[in-house]
Amino acid sequence: MVDHFLDEILHPRSIAVVGASVSGPGWRFLLPLLRRGFQGKLYPVNPKYQEIGGLKSYASLKEIPDTVDYIISVVPAPQVPDLIRDAATKGTRAVHLFTARFSETGRPQAARLEQEILELARQLGVRIIGPNCMGVYYPAWGISFEEEFPKEPGNVAFISQSGNLAGETVMAAALRGIRFSKVISYGNAIDLNECDYLEYLAQDPETAIILMYVEGVKGGRRFVSTLRQVASVKPVIILKGGRGEAGARATSSHTASLAGSMEIWEAALEQANAIEVDSVEELIDMAVTFRFLPPLKGKRVGVTGGAGGASVLAADQCEMAGLEVIPLPQGFREQLKNRGVSVWDWLSNPADLSIREDDRLTVKGIIELMSQDPHFDLLIVMLHVHRHGDQPDMTLDDFLKQHQLDGFETVSTKPLLAVVPERSFGIEGWDNVEWKLSCELRSRLVSNGIPFYPTIYRAALAASRMADYYIRKDGR
Amino acid sequence: MVDHFLDEILHPRSIAVVGASVSGPGWRFLLPLLRRGFQGKLYPVNPKYQEIGGLKSYASLKEIPDTVDYIISVVPAPQVPDLIRDAATKGTRAVHLFTARFSETGRPQAARLEQEILELARQLGVRIIGPNCMGVYYPAWGISFEEEFPKEPGNVAFISQSGNLAGETVMAAALRGIRFSKVISYGNAIDLNECDYLEYLAQDPETAIILMYVEGVKGGRRFVSTLRQVASVKPVIILKGGRGEAGARATSSHTASLAGSMEIWEAALEQANAIEVDSVEELIDMAVTFRFLPPLKGKRVGVTGGAGGASVLAADQCEMAGLEVIPLPQGFREQLKNRGVSVWDWLSNPADLSIREDDRLTVKGIIELMSQDPHFDLLIVMLHVHRHGDQPDMTLDDFLKQHQLDGFETVSTKPLLAVVPERSFGIEGWDNVEWKLSCELRSRLVSNGIPFYPTIYRAALAASRMADYYIRKDGR
Questions:
Q1: What confidence score (pLDDT) does residue B365 get?
Q2: pLDDT tens-digit profile of A47-97?
Q3: Which of A272, A311, B78, B320 is packed most tightly, with the most Cβ within 10 A?
Q4: Who among B104, B166, B423 is closest to A422 (CB)?
Q5: Which residues of A touch B446 (CB under 8 A)?
Q6: B342 and B279, same structural domain?
Q7: The predicted structure's pLDDT at residue A391
Q8: Best of B316, B395, B450 to disrupt the A interface by mutation (most A CBs within 10 Å)?
Q9: pLDDT for position A256
Q10: Do B308 and A164 touch (CB under 8 A)?
């Protein structure tokens, strides 16, 4: 067991869903607990029902003939003080308040009620997750706030001030091969806050990588020192909401957060060697990069798979992202020459194989050669499935063979990143073969442990940020 | 007719494909001319065949019993001087040299041959498109270098130094509702160059918007003055390849271009009020924006459709992109209050409707209200189809109704941009309902003339760049 009070809270042996129902949020929170193998006791609480989802429904918390470790509250805000009082009588460690409409409304009365709840909880020794949040997704313990989340656990944790964003991130990251240890949506954070969760995850053996979405922190000084400590143990990747004026206004009406000064924020992150990103997409890119690649401590990249202008732009975008697109090393050229590759003197990095005249060199062969050359720290291969619309029966293996890529998945001994573009198909394209092959290719990459990215810029930026993290870490 | 020599070149009444064949590039260039309604005479030239694609094949250009306006050359480089000589005897105005392996190889002999060809062509009065390029896609005249390109014409022109990039751009832009007037892939540009094409397109009544992909320009001074003149007439959006060191090396081995100094380049573009972009994706975003929106001269944006953190981040990303996310105007709030909207005081911009308690306000209603408010210059609506995986039979109309969006397409009198995310599905997701609905939604948007973008940042950046263009233009 981990020596942190959150470890007990996150391993409840009994859960009550107060405000459970046969539809709406009261069902939405109960359903995953019913279906996802939660091993503890489960108590729906709602006086309107005798039974919900095949379980006896209790009229109140007090009627439950046992202790209740953890409570999910779906009742309206005015009922929460009584809920906290009842929870205290049941030995409850923590209450997750999905319940909202507190300080985030900007209304004084709602803010007063929130404060009252906090004081009551402190007084009675009940900890609070939220309010105004989706709570916990902990697949290994059978807890989820969305029925559709993956059931298998992984080693990435996500602390998110927004529940909706947590949901979108889990689903989008799942497509990229990411599975989660724990995801905590924590909303207004009146009691337990980002520092508590960070401290816990730093110790959590199930977590190797920590993602955060933060709108505002509760205590700046504690946050800075906590972040520094945690980021020295595990990579922490942070997306900040409310960076501009309008965003700061929006954080206030979303989670009642003070967005704070961006200068101080960025200085704190840099000092802590935390990795800041600008969007959910980049947050997931970093998760994928840390999940699938070994620590990267250099930035010299070898690029292949592109043709013509795409290859030129690949060079630009790698450099813009902070990587070094080195010229082909002399020894590399000599190897090409010795193999009888006619374009040995003309080929460059990025290696655009559309210029070759014969098949003495394949894309797979280039990856292999670059992987053997000590001048490269990492490799990026561009895999664009296009112009196959007239071959509806083409399989992925056909495609890979045709592009001399068959077996490329296992050929690199260096960190290898793949680029597989996303598309904006209309309905006329939704079932076309290029899209299907791209989907198959992504699944193949994930199962081979190769991270993929929709653009080369995003691949390069993720690799560059990872290298920065390890270079800074080693320098300390 | 347009008073520019390129107008005649681009309206050939006869075309010879020299090096035509029954497969490979010699077939690839002939096929679209056969199938896409080219109205002129078509002459395959190859002594190895009697007939190609149902047409008589000529042993040489000279055997063709008529003038030949335009030639597509697919023969190897050493045969090109003779080809030019023969062309001159046939009254040919221009030769498109798909033929490559000239100066881009970096080999002195190949560069000498290229120079010899140029001198010969000048001497004999034959103009050259290329070499090392895909040539012309002019759907209204039945000319294309890819069989799969859309047959319908549009009002966007694209001058691209890379043929591959031109192909990718045409296909990706087509998904976003863009059709083209003329696309010219011009490669090494030894004779006709970017300035000739620009001058022509400025006059071309079929072209309203000009896209460019440039690796290097042939004469800096002429380019700057041409660009200034052309960009004052029509929006010119430019993607520069070879902006970094490695990219500059890559331009040299791709089109033998000198990438040039980025400082001078950027100053020239700013002076000309041309719009610079960083990627093919952004190039297409700008095409879509100019194609579908009226001139935008203000940057005050109203945003809706997002929930929670996505809404907060939408505000940040709009500001990062240069838009002004103004607070909800007082009159706007009063209207909400008068309608009995309970969250009238709490709602902000972005308008996150996930906080509302009742249905007095719909997303469609917010778009309508914002559209009527003079404080907004443009609107962005986020349309994320997700969490419908368990409703495989859901239709787009069901979805729009469920999200209170039915009829939103026609409700705005202000420029409206939509955000429809792209996805990285694996094979398990390739035919799922969320993807299908997203595809249907995109088609619906295009048919209603509403531009869509995969992220809010890209939507906001495109709108902001368009406003900058018109604001600068008006200031001159």
A1: 93
A2: 999 999 999 999 999 999 999 999 999 999 999 999 999 999 999 999 999
A3: A311
A4: B423
A5: 426
A6: no
A7: 84
A8: B316
A9: 86
A10: yes
Taking an 8 Å cut-off on Cβ atoms, the answer to whether A246 and B316 are in contact is: yes
Say yes or no: A280 contacts chain B, CB-CB below 8 A. yes
Q: Do B430 and A422 touch (CB under 8 A)?
A: no
* pLDDT tens digits, B292-306: 999 999 999 999 999
Residue A321: closest CA among A198, A419, A399, A427: A419
CATH number of the domain at A392, please: 3.40.50.261
Residues A32 and A76 occupy one common structural domain:
yes
pLDDT digits (tens, 9 = 90+) for A307-357: 999 999 999 999 999 999 999 999 999 999 999 999 999 999 999 988 887
Residues of chain A contacting residue B427, judged by C-beta atoms under 8 Å apart: 436, 439-440, 442-443
Rounded to an integer, the average pLDDT of A121-128 is 98
Regarding whether B170 and B71 lie in a shared domain, the answer is: no
B49 shares its domain with B159: no
Contact indicator for A38, A143 with CB cutoff of 8 Å: yes
- B63 min Cα distance to partner chain A (Å): 31
Residues A360-413 have pLDDT tens digits of 889 999 999 999 999 999 999 999 988 777 788 899 999 999 888 999 999 999
* pLDDT value at residue A1: 67
Give me the number of domains chain B comprises: 3
**What's residue B1's pLDDT?**
67
Q: Of the candidates A242, A274, A292, which is a domain's last residue?
A: A292
Low-confidence ranges of chain B (pLDDT < 70): 1
Query: What global pTM score does this model have?
Result: 0.96
Q: For residues A165 and A263, state if they share a domain.
A: yes
What residue in A sits closest to B314 (Cα-Cα)? A247
Q: Are residues B314 and B168 in the same domain?
A: no
Can you give the three-state secondary structure of chain A, one letter per residue? CCCCHHHHHCCCCEEEEECCCCCHHHHHCHHHHHHCCCCCEEEEECCCCCEECCEECECCHHHCCCCCCEEEECCCHHHHHHHHHHHHHCCCCEEEECCCCCHHHCCHHHHHHHHHHHHHHHHHCCEEECCCCCEEEEHHHCECCCCCCCCCCCCEEEEECCHHHHHHHHHHHHHCCCCEEEEEECCCCCCCCHHHHHHHHHHCCCCCEEEEEECCCCCHHHHHHHHHHHHCCCCEEEEECCCCHHHHHHHHHHHCCCCCCHHHHHHHHHHHCCEEECCHHHHHHHHHHHHHCCCCCCCEEEEECCCCHHHHHHHHHHHHCCCECCCCCHHHHHHHHHCCCCCCCCCCCCECHHHCCCCCCCHHHHHHHHHHCCCCCEEEEECCCCCCCCCCCCCHHHHHHHCCCCCHHHCCCCCEEEECCCCCCCHHHCCCHHHHHHHHHHHHHHHCCCCEECCHHHHHHHHHHHHHHHHHHHCC
Burial track A252-286 (b if 16+ CB lie within 10 A, e otherwise): bbbbbbebbeeeebeebbeebbbbbbbbbbbbbbb
Domain with residue B97: its CATH number is 3.40.50.720
| Residues A122, A268 within the same domain | no
Same domain, B314 and B206: no
Of the residues B73, B100, B132, the one at which a domain ends: B132
Residues of chain B neighbouring A384 (CB-CB closer than 8 A): 168
CA B97 to chain centre: 23
What is the distance in angstroms between the Cα of A103 and the nearest Cα belonging to chain B? 11
List pLDDT tens digits, range A144-173: 999 999 999 999 999 999 999 999 999 999
Domain that holds residue A20: 1-132
Q: Do A309 and B213 touch (CB under 8 A)?
A: yes
DSSP-derived 3-state class of residue B350: coil
Q: With beta carbons under 8 A apart, name residues in chain B contacting A98.
A: none
Kindly give the pairing relationship between strand B51-52 and strand B55-56.
Answer: antiparallel
